[in-house]
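Continuing the series of single-chain predictions for the mutant panel. This is the parent chain; the variants come on the following pages.
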Amino acid sequence: MEYGYLKNGETLALNAELCVGCGACVEVCPHAVFTLSSGKVSIESRSSCMECGACAKNCPAGALSVTAGVGCAAAIIIGKLRGTEPTCDCGCGSASLSASDSSSRKKLKEKSAYC
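Parent structure:
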């Protein structure tokens, strides 16, 4: 299954020169954003990044950075945890979206390009 969150994974950054090729980011990323090839990691699917921060927290070389807890994906997760409607305050209308049904997920995917 392919996920799409924020267009181009807005805060995700990889410094390839610092990458030591350990593959920790590949292992911890829940949506297969990274691939490991020839001893270096590359970003395979930037729009699949939900900006959770697991990659950056587990990178021993500091080659990855991401601002965790931003954007519509974080808003949906926080809304679910709190039992409230999600809102990312970006004006995209995510407050009316729910991740619990397929039509809402489709709406979120369309809206996420604007966040």
